[in-house]
């Protein structure tokens, strides 16, 4: 097992290495403003046998979770996903049954994921290969996951410290769990936001623990498209003094200037419009060959975007949209939410910023959406939470870039697979409209439970009245037509006589 804890501080917040207390079992230091990342790498033999058996049936597995709370971060931790739990997996065989995986996912809470119909398929260039399946759930906290996991992995004399570290997950803003059959290893990566925090890292009893205290820097010969970092590193139990380091690396995800907010226009009705307001309109850099702004949406089944409505160029232009780049399938445009099998849908839209816009030019985007019918409720109303999208500038230089060598690289976020491997993502930071949450709440009108019975009776009555009206019209028309025919025949007989 390998463990890496990194404290990444902003400029001016570095600490004196002499203030670090380095022992054989722990590293301690004074409080400093920093982002904290905790990364653990395990091999399959180090996992519980049931979990290892589950992973051996998969080519890869990626779990991405993000908090619904607004938070601050620093480069190189700029990448984002919409709030909630995102799960994608590729089986080794086409006839894979996801029920075994779903059972393991119950560690996060009660998730409806055992049926293949719940998942959506992600694009796959290889036709004969098993497709990658994707699932989403509106999970806002990791408290339950930390509690359940502690009963499985924490035991022995270090159980108390193990439970404490897992309990810290309740304050994390993101969690990644990845498995790749080519490396035969599992990586767990948690991130805590930028805030004042004390440096305290105990040694892992089962492996190597590396501690880094770093900040942004500019090492010699660093190229314009790279990020530089400097600071100190130490390995608990191996080093008595921290080792100074300075290095540069390619960053797939960067922080773009400006911010955005997301809200529903009022009144919403059954066809609400989601409005994105962006504070800047200029591409993040001048050195990239091609840059365009995008928004990647994760819509629970209660709401969806109509791909046909978003197909017209003139309509898109009126909403400050350029094109619909991707809509996941299937998306039933008519079914109510309670009969819809898939969890929901993903949509990638290319945005149309104002031409010749200055960096500080504010602009808005409108996305027309449609609510599904929900089950009747006692109040006649239901509230749904729609997570903020991910907004970014995608810049493609067309050149092969070794992003994977970065110690902080992050992949399989959903939208990155829709672009070429040479694409760099400049993320626009989201700002909460109210309450500090990156969730848009919307009230959905539904039928009142008591009235739902009368709806059926009323519908039947309307159908019956309509049927009788049509029948009377047909009978009346036939009688009139028949009488006219008899009269005409009588007149013809008289003429013949």
From TrEMBL:
N-terminal signal peptide: none
Lipid bilayer topology: Single-pass membrane protein; Single-pass type III membrane protein
UniProt record, GO biological process: GPI anchor biosynthetic process
Key words of the record: Endoplasmic reticulum, Glycoprotein, GPI-anchor biosynthesis, Membrane, Transmembrane, Transmembrane helix
Protein localization: Endoplasmic reticulum membrane
Function summary: Required for proper folding and/or the stability of a subset of proteins in the endoplasmic reticulum. Component of glycosylphosphatidylinositol-mannosyltransferase 1 which transfers the first of the 4 mannoses in the GPI-anchor precursors during GPI-anchor biosynthesis. Probably acts by stabilizing the mannosyltransferase GPI14.
Family to which the UniProt record says this protein belongs: Belongs to the PIGX family.
Protein's name according to its UniProt entry: Protein PBN1
């Amino acid at each position: 097992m390998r463990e890496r804890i990194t404290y990444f501080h902003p400029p001016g917040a570095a600490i004196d290495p002499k203030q670090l207390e380095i022992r054989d079992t722990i590293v301690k230091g004074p409080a400093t403003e920093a982002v904290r990342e905790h990364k653990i790498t395990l091999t399959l033999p180090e996992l519980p046998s049931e979990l290892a058996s589950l992973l051996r049936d998969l080519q890869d597995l990626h779990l991405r979770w993000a908090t619904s709370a607004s938070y601050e971060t620093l480069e190189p931790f700029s990448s984002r996903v919409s709030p909630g739990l995102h799960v994608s997996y590729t089986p080794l065989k086409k006839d894979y049954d996801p029920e075994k995986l779903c059972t393991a996912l119950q560690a996060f809470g009660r998730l409806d994921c055992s049926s293949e119909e719940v998942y959506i398929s992600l694009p796959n260039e290889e036709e004969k290969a098993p497709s990658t399946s994707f699932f989403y759930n509106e999970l806002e906290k990791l408290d339950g996951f930390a509690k359940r996991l502690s009963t499985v992995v924490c035991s022995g004399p270090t159980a108390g410290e193990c439970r404490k570290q897992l309990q810290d997950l309740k304050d994390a803003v993101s969690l990644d769990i990845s498995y790749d059959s080519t490396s035969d290893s599992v990586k767990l990566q948690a991130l805590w936001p930028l805030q004042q925090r004390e440096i305290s890292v105990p040694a892992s009893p089962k492996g190597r623990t590396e501690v880094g205290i770093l900040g942004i820097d500019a090492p010699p010969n660093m190229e314009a498209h790279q990020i530089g970092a400097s600071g100190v590193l130490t390995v608990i139990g191996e080093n008595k003094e921290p080792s100074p380091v300075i290095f540069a690396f390619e960053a797939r995800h960067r922080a773009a200037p400006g911010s955005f907010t997301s809200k529903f226009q009022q009144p919403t009705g059954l066809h609400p419009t989601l409005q994105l307001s962006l504070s800047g309109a200029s591409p993040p850099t001048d050195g990239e060959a091609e840059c365009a702004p995008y928004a990647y949406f994760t819509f629970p089944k209660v709401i969806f975007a109509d791909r046909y409505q978003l197909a017209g160029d003139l309509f898109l232009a009126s909403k400050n949209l350029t094109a619909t780049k991707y809509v996941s399938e299937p998306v039933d445009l008519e079914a109510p939410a309670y009969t819809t099998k898939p969890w929901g849908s993903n949509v990638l839209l290319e945005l149309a910023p104002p031409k010749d816009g200055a960096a500080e030019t504010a602009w808005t985007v409108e996305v027309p959406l449609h609510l599904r019918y929900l089950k009747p409720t006692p109040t006649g109303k239901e509230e749904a939470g729609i997570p903020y999208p991910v907004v970014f500038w995608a810049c493609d230089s067309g050149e092969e870039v070794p992003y994977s060598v970065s110690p902080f690289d992050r992949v399989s976020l959903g939208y990155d697979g829709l672009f070429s491997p040479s694409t760099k993502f400049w993320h626009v930071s989201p700002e909460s409209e109210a309450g500090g949450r990156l969730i848009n709440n919307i009230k959905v009108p539904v039928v009142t439970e008591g009235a739902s019975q009368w709806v059926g009776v009323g519908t039947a009555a309307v159908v019956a009245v309509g049927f009788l009206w049509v029948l009377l019209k047909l009978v009346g028309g036939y009688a009139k037509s028949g009488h006219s025919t008899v009269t005409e025949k009588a007149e013809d007989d008289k003429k013949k006589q």
